[in-house]
């Protein structure tokens, strides 16, 4: 899981784990969310260069449709306290 360190927090991508848990492919998510495959790959690998919240919302809604589960932003990324 790729992390971006900050003084007291850690931003962690959880999209890969969610997609793997429900058997969602990157191709299926890309088609359902109607976003670029490079964007899906970057989010899946935990290495996006920036966060576009409208795109994150489209990903969440697409995942909900594909999995029939009430998924949330925590299924795509988390913000946790880091080590001090």
Explain what the structure shows:
Residues 15-63 form the HTH cro/C1-type domain. This is HTH cro/C1-type domain-containing protein. InterPro entries: Cro/C1-type_HTH (IPR001387). The chain is α+β, with helices and mostly antiparallel strands. The chain has one domain: 434 Repressor (Amino-terminal Domain) (Orthogonal Bundle), CATH 1.10.260. The protein is built from four helices and three strands; from the N terminus they run E-E-H-H-H-H-E. Strands 1-2-3 form a three-stranded antiparallel sheet. Strand 1 (3-5) and strand 2 (9-13) form a beta hairpin. The radius of gyration is 13 Å and the shape is globular. The two termini are 20 Å apart. The model has no long low-confidence stretch (mean pLDDT 88).
Mean pLDDT value: 88
Strand arrangement across the biggest beta sheet: 1-2-3
CATH class: Mainly Alpha
Number of strands: 3
* Low-confidence spans: none
Determine the N-to-C terminus distance: 20 Å
The helix fraction, in percent, is 40-55%
- Counting copies of identical and different chains, the oligomeric state is single chain
- Tell me the CATH architecture: Orthogonal Bundle
Number of helices: 4
Shape, please? globular
Give the tally of structural domains. 1
Compact description:
By secondary structure, the chain is of the alpha+beta class.
SSE layout and pairing:
Layout: E1 3-5, E2 9-13, H1 15-22, H2 26-33, H3 37-45, H4 53-67, E3 77-81
Antiparallel strand pairs: 1-2, 2-3
């Amino acid at each position: 899981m790729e992390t971006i360190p900050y003084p007291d927090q850690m931003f962690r991508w959880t999209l890969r784990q969610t997609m793997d848990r429900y058997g969602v492919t990157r191709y299926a998510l890309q088609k359902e969310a109607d976003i670029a495959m490079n964007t899906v790959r970057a989010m899946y690998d935990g290495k996006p260069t920036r966060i576009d919240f409208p795109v994150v919302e489209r990903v969440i809604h697409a995942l909900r449709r594909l999995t029939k589960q009430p998924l949330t932003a925590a299924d795509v990324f988390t913000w946790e306290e880091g080590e001090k």
